[in-house]
Amino acid sequence: MRRAKLILLASASLLLACSNRKALDKEALMDPAACQGCHPDAYREWSGSMHAYASDDPVFIALNAFAQRETNGEIGDLCVGCHAPMALHVGATTDGLNIEDVPRRLRGVTCYYCHQIDRIEDDHNAAFHLADDDMFRGGIGDPVDTEAHRSGTLAFHDGRRGESSALCGSCHDVRTPSGLQLENTFAEWRESVFAQGPSPVSCAGCHMPGRSGPVAEVPGAPVRRLHDHSMPGVDVALSPWPEAPEQLQAIQRDLRRAITATLCVQPGTLGPEVVVVLDNVLAGHAFPSGVTHARRAWVELVAFDGEAPILISGVVEDDEPIVELEDENLWLMRSRIFDEDGTEVHFSWRAKTMETTLLPAAVTSDPTDPRFSHSVERSYPLSILPSKVRMRVQMRPIGLEMFDEIIESGDLDPAVLDSVPTHILAGTEIEWTDADGLGCVN
Fold it and tell me: What's the whole-model pTM score?
């Protein structure tokens, strides 16, 4: 009863604080900038996110233009449906070719789009239904209406509940017109241990960490459980964009704990060998995930005799495509896609089949289950016993060679390549020395 009275008092105070503000019309509700006044932290976080950047990304713009030409428009709204869903929803674009002329309020994945979803119709290709009303939906169980908009609650907006992952999953699983399941992040999560049990860890549970505070910066707003709207993954802005350092810092924070590594030096059947073991322990999906045919994750390993390298694997310059490295020992984690003739291709609209070398997610917490151990290891033969071995895992959100055709076609400025980062997974940086003796370190 006391809680109910407090909520009523908070609601009255909030309404009073908003009473001098005109209720937002639909056009204003669609504009993320209109949210900034009452929700400055959420707006700031979102403004630097890849959701905000989705239709400003020069690679998206270039790939969409290239794909529309090559398929004679048959690719349709496959890309823009997730990268600028509001622009598609209101008819400001049909194929994304005019995206740079679309009003700013309709660009990217907006506040209105996510908080207007009232039904999820399928598990891929942005199969959402929008209410298109003045109610913004979230995960708060006792929301407060304001003069700006009404407020509602739906279970799949509550990041504490497993079903909320479907709200992310329908854009983060992608099926091509040919039927190829190209992106599988949601499907991977559903099969993982994170989706199981009475307290599953949702997508938001990792990518939108919580804190306590008022939802709206107005007098009398009650303290709630808020969630970070920067939503880091591995992609970064490749052109000037707000909050870029903060986004990169959040990515590095999350990658540090995603996978674990063990480095062993031991006798082998033909002589000494280095063994690297990688375990995807805290990513709630495969590693890497998302557009895995574009992702490039690899092990960098160098073994020394004194100061002289006796084995070098996975060492590349910042501007060197990892797939072009002549390295028979290279451990590269990615997907490869192939056309109907079995030829490897770079672009999804050409693909008919796919094969992967991803690190699988954990699927059980039961140590008696044969599936409990899901780590992956590789051996590196040596000619002599090393005195020192160093390793780390690195990752690029998109392989540099993926840009070649769209640069050659004139769709992309080659300077964009300079902005592609190489992430270092700090949690996998390990050094073994002969002082450690034969065995493993982590």
Answer: 0.92
Distances (CA, A) of 49 to 6, 55, 174, 243, 250: 34, 12, 20, 8, 11
Q: Is 393 helix (H, G, I), strand (E, B) or coil?
A: strand
Domain spans of the chain, in order of start: 2-54+109-231, 250-441
CA torsion, ordered 191, 194, 198, 202, to nearest 10 deg: -110
Please say whether the beta carbons of 121 and 129 come within 8 A: yes
Beta bridge partners of 173: 184
Rounded Cα distance, 327 and 314, in Å: 7
Residue 7 confidence class, pLDDT cut points 50, 70, 90:
very low
pLDDT recorded at residue 22: 60
For residue 9, pLDDT beyond 50: no
User: Is the separation of the CB atoms in 100 and 57 below 8 Å?
Assistant: no
Supply the DSSP symbol for 181: E
In total, the chain counts a number of residues equal to 442
| Mean pLDDT for all residues in the chain | 93
Report angle CA 57, 58, 60 to the nearest 5 degrees: 70
Q: pLDDT tens across 242-270, in order? A: 999 999 999 999 999 999 999 999 999 88
Cα 421 to chain centroid, rounded: 15
100: amino acid identity, one letter: E
Mean pLDDT for the stretch of residues 301-317:
97
**Terminal-to-terminal C-alpha distance of the chain:** 53
